[in-house]
Write a structure and sequence with these properties.
This is Knr4/Smi1-like domain-containing protein. This protein has 519 residues and is an alpha+beta fold. It has helices spanning 2-16, 21-40, 47-56, 60-72, 76-93, 106-114, 118-124, 138-149, 152-166, 172-186, 189-202, 207-214, 218-224, 229-241, 261-269, 286-290, 313-327, 343-352, 366-375, 378-381, 428-433, 464-473, 480-486, 500-509, and strands at 302-305, 308-311, 355-356, 362-363, 385-390, 395-400, 408-412, 423-425, 451-456, 492-499, 516-518.
């Protein structure tokens, strides 16, 4: 494990930008401290989920646990990091309505197995909900459901679904995953062992699972792929399903650097122990860890939307808040989110929570959102939308109250007609990358956006590590060595033809305001 551990530690320090777990944990403490300030100001509503988002940012609980396990050799850290991360993720992910019904938790179910969190299965894969009737991963989900609850009727149905699934054109990973579950239910040990090995070899190429667990950040994905958590989950499913069978001893661990044998040797030696929290947040705020206790987590439930069943996130959220309120661990009353903010805007507001740009554009903070929408009477004239900002003049920025919405409608403050807006921005994130420019019909920016050359005027306090961050954030076409040489003669030009708005957004995002100038 020594070589794998050293490689992981180096990558962890480089990507996460932290030199020790102490610094990482203090960063989490600062996030919660910010939340407590909102509580003291009586403005906690809506910020609860911001705090959750910050806890989960960059999978840092799980990565910290794995890193500590490699440093100390104690695999309990890895077990507990996966456990705590996955539970927070389940709470955050199930709070909003979404399609797919039961299958939305398939990956979380496998990760729960990877850390022996069998109690969570009763909440996110409840027996009473039955098997999934639709969704791409329904055959996988239904087979795990059948094996978890020893339901032969569902198992036979899932076998047929897997057979049909394997007859169609799929990726190699998806076909191998279907074959693995099929063979496991058949108790074909050779097939199971072969499947685990092939899946481990292909795991790095499985886009839909890696993106679900690690998000879209390539660096975070790179770190995540160094430890095949999902494959560990499959291994645990096999071991649990065959625990009372003489075939158990014939299950083999995959031979791959991403499969941590020491972790499984620890699990076998300790008889697959119950996990615990990696980080004790109680001294800061007792409701944080309390929110992921089994008795606090509501069972997921589903409602019918047309011909399909969808995850009833609002019911989940309401029950969670009621459970926390009943515990008396919260010094205030939590309410449901008043607006169904699009996912892209939620991500933006979690990072910035309000932003004013030099071009006059303003994006409302969570505190301002309700008041501004009431003042603008958006709920009267366009009740299915939410105003997320304005241009400081006559334009209001509207987005539909839908999770997947990305389009921004720039409408006149006196006429909220979405059919004839001043401008339609197809993608919020791409608009942000361009510095939130607003163009007239001739294609010229009408908000006075300054284009110029980007200069580095101060050296980042992180030194070379900070320069690497700058290089990546601004996508500079120069080597780190070249950038280091240029930084020795400040001010130095880094980039041409960039707007001041875009430069400011990037600088804020990487925590380096005041280091740059547009000339």
């Amino acid at each position: 494990m020594v070589k794998a551990a050293k490689s992981y530690q180096q990558k962890y320090e480089k990507i996460m930008g932290e030199s020790s777990e102490d610094e990482l944990w203090s960063d989490i403490e600062r996030d919660i401290a910010e939340f407590k300030k909102k509580v003291e100001l009586g403005k906690a509503d809506g910020y609860f989920w911001n705090m959750y988002f910050n806890l989960l940012r960059s999978n840092r609980l799980m990565f910290a646990g794995i890193n500590e396990a490699f440093i100390t050799g104690d695999m309990a850290y890895m077990l507990n990091g996966i456990y705590q991360e996955n539970r927070f993720n389940c709470i955050y992910g199930n709070r909003a309505n979404s399609g797919g019904a039961q299958t939305i938790n398939f990956i979380e179910v496998v990760l729960a197995y990877s850390c022996n969190d069998y109690k969570l299965l009763e909440r996110i894969m409840p027996f009473e909900a039955g098997p999934a009737s639709s969704g791409y991963s329904a055959p996988y989900y239904n087979m795990v459901y059948a094996m978890t609850y020893h339901d032969d009727e569902v198992g036979k149905k899932a076998q047929a679904e897997l057979s049909t699934f394997m007859e169609k054109k799929r990726t190699q990973f998806d076909l191998k995953l279907a074959k693995f579950f099929y063979d496991l239910y058949q108790k074909d040990v050779d097939g199971v062992n072969c499947g685990l090995q092939e899946l481990c070899d292909l795991m790095g190429k499985c886009k839909w699972i890696n993106e679900h667990i690690y998000g879209l950040d390539k660096d975070i994905q790179t770190l995540g792929k160094m430890v095949a958590i999902f494959i560990h989950g499959l291994y645990h499913i096999a071991m649990k399903f065959l625990e009372d069978s003489p075939l158990l001893d014939k299950i083999k661990m995959p031979e791959h650097k991403s499969f941590i044998k020491e972790y499984e040797e620890f699990n076998i030696e300790k008889n697959f122990p119950e996990p615990h929290n990696l980080i004790n947040f109680d001294p800061i705020a007792k409701f944080i860890n309390l929110s992921i206790k089994t008795e606090m987590i509501p069972e997921v439930s589903f409602s019918k939307s047309g011909r399909m069943y969808v995850n009833d996130g609002k019911r989940f959220e309401k029950r969670l808040f009621a459970n926390l309120q009943k515990s008396k661990a919260l010094p205030f009353e939590l309410k449901e989110e008043k607006y169904k903010l699009p996912a892209v805007y939620k991500e933006f507001i979690c990072k910035y929570d309000g932003l004013s740009l030099e071009n006059g554009c303003t994006f409302y903070s969570l505190e301002e959102l309700d008041a501004m929408n009431k003042d603008l009477q958006v709920n009267i004239y366009q009740p299915d939308t939410v105003a997320v900002g304005d241009d400081g003049g006559d334009l209001v920025f509207l987005m539909k109250q839908e999770k997947e919405a990305k389009t921004v409608y720039l409408v006149d403050a006196g006429d909220y007609d979405l059919e004839s807006p001043y401008q339609i921005i197809p993608d919020f994130n791409k608009w942000m990358e361009k510095g939130f420019e607003i163009e007239d019909i001739d294609g010229e920016d009408v908000r006075g956006v300054d284009y110029g050359d980007l200069y580095l005027i101060k050296m980042p306090k992180e030194g070379v590590k900070g320069l690497v961050t700058i290089k990546r954030a601004f996508n500079l076409e120069m080597s780190t060595g070249e950038l280091l040489q240029k930084s020795k003669s400040l001010p130095t030009k880094l980039l041409s033809n960039i707007t001041s708005s875009k430069a400011n957004i990037i600088a804020e995002k990487i925590g380096m305001p005041g280091l740059f100038e547009i000339r």
